[in-house]
Each structure stands twice: as C-alpha cells, then as structure tokens.
C-alpha cells in the first residue's frame, strides 16, 4: 500500500475592521434679524422637521444663542448647513448654520 500524503487544510481569515464614520452636529446660531417664521420654514425644509420640533429648536436658539439641530456624517452635515445658510442669504438674512465634529 502506498503512503498517502495528508495535506492539512489551512484557512486564512482576514478581519476587516469597520469603523463608524465620525458624526458632525449641525448647529443653528441666533441672530437679531432673521424672522422666526423664516427660521422655522428653513428647519422644516432642509432638516425635515415637523412644525412643533422646528418651533422648539428655533426658540431654543433664540433664547440660548445656539441649538444643535441634528447629527450626520460630515458631508451631509456640511451640505445641509450650507444649504440652510444660503436660503437665508438669498433673502438677505444673516441666518447661520455651522457644523462641529462630535466627540
Ligand atoms: N432671534 C430672531 C428673532 O428674534 C429669530 C431667530 C431664531 C433667528 C433662531 C435665528 C435663529 N427674529
């Protein structure tokens, strides 16, 4: 009987590390000139808020100076902040949205 060669089975496992993308806050800043209703309409249009949430967020920014609106990946946060700021600019308002990396 001929000897048999046993080939050991080997497997290689590559572990892929999946990291979550860092998140960015979009922040609404208060100013003295943009009408409240306009701020609410921008929050509804750009950030898909309902009337009540939009009013609450607008009032918080009005009273405290700023309010975190939502959290997105960097691209989405920056695009939405820019879009919302542009809507105010188009009407001559100083309305401003900024972004900040979440810790
Ligand atoms: N402070 C603005 C006003 O009294 C309203 C406002 C709220 C503007 C939140 C910007 C952000 N008309």
From TrEMBL:
Coiled coil: none annotated. It comes from the Bacteria. Residues 20-97 form the Adaptor protein ClpS core domain. InterPro entries: ClpS, ClpS_core, Ribosomal_bL12_C/ClpS-like. Pfam families: ClpS (PF02617). One of its GO terms (biological process) is proteolysis. HAMAP family: ClpS. Belongs to the ClpS family. Involved in the modulation of the specificity of the ClpAP-mediated ATP-dependent protein degradation. Binds to the N-terminal domain of the chaperone ClpA. This is ATP-dependent Clp protease adapter protein ClpS. It comes from Afipia broomeae ATCC 49717.
